[in-house]
Design a protein that fits this description.
Layout lengths: L12 H7 L1 E6 L2 E8 L2 E9 L3 E6 L6 H4 L1 H6 L5 E7 L17 H15 L5 E6 L1 H12 L4 E7 L7 H9 L8 H11 L1 H16 L21 E6 L8 H9 L4 E5 L6 H4 L1 H16 L2
Parallel strand pairs: 4-5, 4-6, 6-7, 7-8, 8-9
Antiparallel strand pairs: 1-2, 2-3, 3-5
Helix pairs in contact: 4-5, 7-8
Length: 286
């Protein structure tokens, strides 16, 4: 699950241009906000390749906190890489984040609609933790739009054991200062603590559903080539979660990183980026 400390509709393009908020350009890329589903969503974009790739952050995560090495180093000639902050996270505020029963479905719709608004007809998904869950839903709901998908630190259901882990980290005052700092810089100490508790309550909702399902019933609908990456030392996502994804997503493959923890894409960024590039390039050669 998306714990940073333990390292997750078709629009008329012209109308979106009219409603966009100032975008900035630089030699390294662009950033800005687009009005999507009633919310101003922040994004950053780098590269100029034909293959568009959307990065989906973890719980309370943002482009800034979650994907620096990917935005900087994924091949800019082959890929156009887009990072975004889901509604209520990072720079996609207001509104403040809330966690209704459909918050993952809402994020998936926002993500897809943002990419449409930015003019991308097809694209791939890289989803970490909560962002991986969002990616699974987006791929299942939009099979004609998604080229390929990579997910890591993600789960399709919440078990009672998972729930215990989440509740153990509910109180951020018990986190180390080093672990709190990145999120407190984004949200401030008080809002971070409040939003994190909201997330724990939000994820706990799924434990009350049959089989603890977040999106179990959607996995058989995923048709894009899917790479599941698992850090064998991930303290928050036990190995039965990637195994479940592997079993129920047709044609998926699993890559294990023996020393990887929850934030394997940050800790082992070079290895992770090469793995992702190779996987995405396979599609280009098909």
């Amino acid at each position: 699950m998306a714990l940073f400390l333990l390292g997750g509709r078709l629009f008329n393009r012209r109308s979106h241009v009219k409603r966009s908020i100032t975008a900035t350009m630089s030699s390294s890329g662009s950033s800005g906000r687009w009005r999507v589903n009633g919310v101003d969503l922040y994004y950053e974009q780098t590269g100029r390749g034909k293959h568009a790739v959307l990065l989906l952050p973890g719980a309370l995560g943002s482009t800034k906190t979650d994907f620096g090495p990917q935005l900087k180093s994924l091949n800019k000639e082959r890929f156009t890489v887009i990072g975004w902050d889901p509604r209520g996270y990072g720079q996609s505020r207001p509104p403040d984040r809330d966690f209704p029963p459909d918050f993952f479905e809402r994020d998936a719709k926002d993500a897809v609609d943002l990419m449409k608004a930015l003019g991308f007809g097809r694209f791939s998904l890289l989803g970490w933790s909560d962002g991986g869950i969002t990616a699974l839903i987006a791929a299942a709901r939009n099979p004609d739009l998604i080229n390929k998908m990579v997910v890591w630190g993600s789960n399709a259901f919440v078990s009672q054991d998972d729930l215990k882990l989440y509740n153990m980290v509910r109180d951020v005052s018990k986190w180390s200062a080093r672990m709190r700092q990145p999120m407190e810089e984004v949200y401030g100490a008080q809002l971070f603590a409040k939003t994190w508790e909201g997330w724990v309550d939000g994820i706990a909702q799924f434990a009350q559903r049959p089989e603890g399902s977040i999106c179990v019933e959607l996995l058989p609908l995923i048709s894009c080539p899917t790479l599941i990456v698992h850090g064998e030392k991930d303290p928050m996502v036990p190995g039965f979660h990637p195994q479940h994804l592997l079993k129920h997503i047709k044609g998926s493959r699993l890559h294990s990183m023996p020393e990887g923890k929850h934030n394997l894409h940050l800790r082992f960024a070079d290895d992770f980026n090469r793995l992702v590039e190779d996987f995405l390039e396979e599609q280009n050669n098909q």
